[in-house]
């Protein structure tokens, strides 16, 4: 079931994904769950919602976040070389 905070575009996206999964043989419950996760992930990546993958709320300063939080944020932003960066390097790269 679509989330009430989703935009009309995200609700349409959810319905299309759900229909496609059902057409490919997934059950209704599985299709709904996968479609909802997909839409929520894309919302988080686009900054429409907070990510639950270890990212802190946007009002927290980068230096206050843990290395894992910074790494998860760098991963969603697809920053190259993130795996070899220190916490300070990740914070600098994310800030600028």
DSSP helical segment count: 4
Poorly predicted runs of 5 or more residues: none
How far apart the termini lie comes to 38 Å
Q: What is the averaged pLDDT score?
A: 84
Structural class: mainly alpha
The count of DSSP E runs of length 2 or more, i.e. the number of strands, is: 0
Main beta-sheet annotation: none
Number of domains: 2
Report the sheet-strand fraction: under 5%
Helix content: 55-70%
Q: What's the SSE pattern?
A: HHHH
Radius of gyration: 16 Å
| Shape annotation | elongated
Molecular structure report:
The chain has helices at residues 8-23, 28-45, 67-76, 87-95. The termini are far apart. It has 96 residues and is mainly α. The chain has four helices and no strands. It folds into two domains: 1-49, no CATH class; 53-96, no CATH class. The model has no long low-confidence stretch (mean pLDDT 84). The chain is elongated, with a radius of gyration of 16 Å.
Draw up the topology in text:
Elements lengths: L7 H16 L4 H18 L21 H10 L10 H9 L1
Helix pairs in contact: 1-2, 3-4
């Amino acid at each position: 079931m679509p989330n009430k905070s989703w935009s009309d575009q995200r609700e349409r996206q959810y319905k299309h994904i759900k229909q496609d999964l059902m057409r490919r043989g997934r059950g209704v419950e599985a299709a709904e769950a996968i479609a909802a996760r997909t839409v929520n992930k894309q919302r988080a990546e686009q900054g429409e919602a907070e990510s639950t993958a270890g990212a802190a709320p946007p009002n927290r300063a980068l230096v206050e976040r843990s290395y894992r939080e910074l790494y998860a944020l760098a991963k969603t932003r697809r920053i190259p070389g993130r795996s070899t960066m220190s916490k300070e390097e990740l914070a600098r790269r994310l800030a600028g």
